[in-house]
Amino acid sequence: MIEVEIIQDPSYEQLVYYWQQLSGGASGAIFINEPWIFPWFKQISQYHSPQLLLIKDQGLLAVAVLHQQLVWHQRVFRRKFIYLNEMPLSGNNMVVEYNGLLCRDGFEGVAWNALCKWLVHNPDWHEIRLSALDFLNLEAVKSATKNHSLIISDLEIQNAPLIQFDQHSDWIEVERFHFSANRLYQIRRCLRLYEKKSGRIKLSVANSPAGRANSWAELERLHNQYWHKKGKQGSFANSKWKAFHESIDASYVQLVTIMSGVELIGVLYNLQLNGRVYNIQSGFSLSQDNKYKPGYLSHYLCAKYNYEMGASSYEFLGGGEHYKTSLAKHTHKLAWIRIRNPAKSYKLEDLIARIYRACISRFIFLRS
């Protein structure tokens, strides 16, 4: 018999104990596996009260971390939202990707059905916010919500571009598939220009604490320069984001520096697990000359390096930015979903909120 258990305010030791029971039997992405979840839990549990979700059937089938949060909906009504493996409030948004239940392979449908059944019988919630679900979890969620008459009120799909490596093909074939002739020409011209100006191009991966600290500092500097020129703050402005990423086990971190002689071209921050390399953040020394393409060159060289190291993919994560789609022809689908509780009516609240906002707008108009 399938059983759902909720542990309120679990200890870090409890989280580790249950998560490790699925080690080797669940092939989820790094964002729901130990290298991400363990330091993330330490970070966010300082500020919020998490719940540990366990789904069992003669052994553990799936785990996840839930957060319940009271929020102001329409700026008028308080509602209880549930988040899965994230807490996108109070500066704790670490931008989870490929989200879902960490589930024993092949039991995704069973696990989501169990969770949806539990939600129906425990109706003290208004919405569940599921961010960046991978496609396997998405299909399981859609089936389970239909089985238990839950309402998917919003569904957004984003592409997550990636360069898929076939280790039976050589790098030239990977290039031909993913990069257009024009993009390859731009990258090779850029490489020649850098080497003529500053010296041989070199890619290095930081392997020592001192090397990682230096690469991290350069990444932060370049990243901040880019966003400050746009009048915005980058990721490093969030001290919680920075502390979290600095705490990830170095064995899963890849800090790549691209140099031309003594000139810094770019720094890439990647995470790696089970052959998949995920580009998390980057910083580049930008040039006034458009012939220099430090971003394209850096990603190209990093992808080639990881291909040569036997990786299965180099992934740009969610979003359809041009630089991603121009360098990667494969895509995964990620889904953002809101599931509404059918036992909680929204009609009256939405009507009152519309009237309230209309009155405020009218008041402001009359005073102006």
What does this structure look like?
By secondary structure, this protein is of the alpha+beta class. Helices cover 39% and strands 29% of the residues. The protein has 2 domains: 3-150 and 341-367, Aminopeptidase, CATH 3.40.630; 162-332, Gcn5-related N-acetyltransferase (GNAT) (Aminopeptidase), CATH 3.40.630.30. The chain has helices at residues 12-21, 34-44, 108-121, 135-147, 171-178, 181-197, 209-229, 239-246, 294-308, 322-325, 347-367, and strands at 3-8, 50-56, 60-73, 77-84, 102-103, 127-134, 151-164, 201-205, 253-260, 263-273, 276-284, 313-315, 330-340. Strands 1, 2, 3, 4, 5, 6, 7, 8, 9, 10, 11, 12 and 13 form a 13-stranded mixed beta sheet that branches. The protein is globular. The mean pLDDT is 91.
What labels describe this entry?
single chain; 368 residues; alpha+beta; Aminopeptidase; 13-stranded mixed beta sheet; 39% helix
Mean pLDDT: 91
N-to-C span: 65 Å
Estimated share of beta-strand residues:
25-35%
The main sheet comes to: 13 strands, mixed
Helix content: 25-40%
Low-confidence region ranges:
none
Overall morphology: globular
Rg over CA atoms, rounded to whole Å, is: 23 Å
Give the SSE string: EHHEEEEHEHEHHEHHEEEHEHEH
What is the assembly state of the chains in this entry? single chain
DSSP, total strands: 13
Q: How many structural domains in the coordinates?
A: 2
